[in-house]
Amino acid sequence: MESSPPxxxxxxxxxxxxxxxxxxxxxxxxxAAWRERLQQDEPLPGLKHKGPTLRTFxxxxxxxxxxxxxxxxxxxxxxxxxxxxxxxxxxxxHYQAVQAQKRAGQxxxxxxxxxxxxVSFYLTEQLTAVYEALRKxxxxxxxxxxxxxxxxxxxxxxxxxxxxxxxxxxxxxxxLRAMTVRMRLAGRGLxxxxxxxxxxxxARMAIDQAARRKVDNVLLDAVxxxxxxxxxxxxxxxxxxxxxx
Length: 245
Fold this sequence. Notes:
With 245 residues, this protein is mostly helical. It has helices spanning 25-38, 52-58, 68-82, 87-105, 125-156, 170-187, 201-210, 215-229, and strands at residues 15-19, 120-124. The longest helix has 32 residues, at 125-156.
């Protein structure tokens, strides 16, 4: 996790700074659609239109009072509160993205490859605690699974060869059992050892989920999140550009 003093003006409480890491093409297109809508001078469903007085004297308009960071944070919040992912699913998601990125670097591009520019976002202290607990549980889940598979392999591959009755050499025995564990992990789409879950993995999963929803509904969540977190309303910058590779 990247953590730094957030440069967001007046906020209620400390915010933790994260980066999504590089995005897939679909994720980049999803974020671009959110950014485009954030810059449209049109009220979201259920929000009142800003009339001439507010526009003239208070410089207000109907752009959603939220930033792209708020959209991602709200998507993360919904993702974790509604149906938190299984830790092993998070590991699988991250591992497969890493493999796709490696293949893309070798000239074998796939839509699953995260190759587009990363995006920053900020989480509240309470949400950060949930986010970090899930990240930490991923390593624990992998350690537990590997221990379980090693126990199974030891039971299935005994010290003595069943055909000859001879004691297997320790190196051969360890190699057979380790290969069995690796094959079963690979069959589940998992790495052969615990890996560090980077700070943006869960956010990218949240973006995938939010992409299935209407843009305006996602942004309404962001407006509520921004209202709860920031004393000064946020706005999407007019100079924002599409995410690049």
